[in-house]
Design goal:
The chain has one domain: NAD(P)-binding Rossmann-like Domain (Rossmann fold). A 4-stranded parallel sheet has the order 3-2-1-4, sandwiched between helices. The protein contains 3 helices and 4 strands, in the order βαββαβα. By secondary structure, it is α/β, with parallel strands linked by helices.
């Protein structure tokens, strides 16, 4: 299975990525993370050396995410904007998810 993990460089997302790679040897993992305040490539450590893991530094609102989603069997969403109560941040949260579901923002 090919699994897209958003926010995969954060604390929880990186632990999930390591779990997938360790316990599901047939799976491939695609990580999308913007690497803002919580995302850090050091959280992924050796996972990035695994040939089944690919990292993409992207914002969820980037149109390239739509193409990545199309090739995946599952999406696990850990990316979050803690300021989502503010209007621009809320818009990012909503519009960032809509393309993944095939809808136009």
């Amino acid at each position: 299975m090919k699994v897209l993990v958003t926010g995969g460089a954060g604390f929880i997302g990186s632990n999930f990525v390591r779990h997938l790679l360790r316990d599901h040897p047939a799976d491939q993992v695609i990580i999308v993370d913007r690497l803002t305040y919580a995302g850090n490539l050091r959280n992924l450590g050796e996972a990035l050396q695994d040939g089944r893991c690919r990292f993409n530094r992207l914002d969820l609102c980037d149109p390239a995410v739509r193409d990545i989603v199309k090739g995946c069997d599952a999406v696990v969403h850990f990316a979050v904007n803690p300021l989502a109560t503010r209007r621009p941040a809320l818009q990012d949260e909503v519009q960032g998810r809509m393309p993944a579901h095939g809808e136009n923002p």
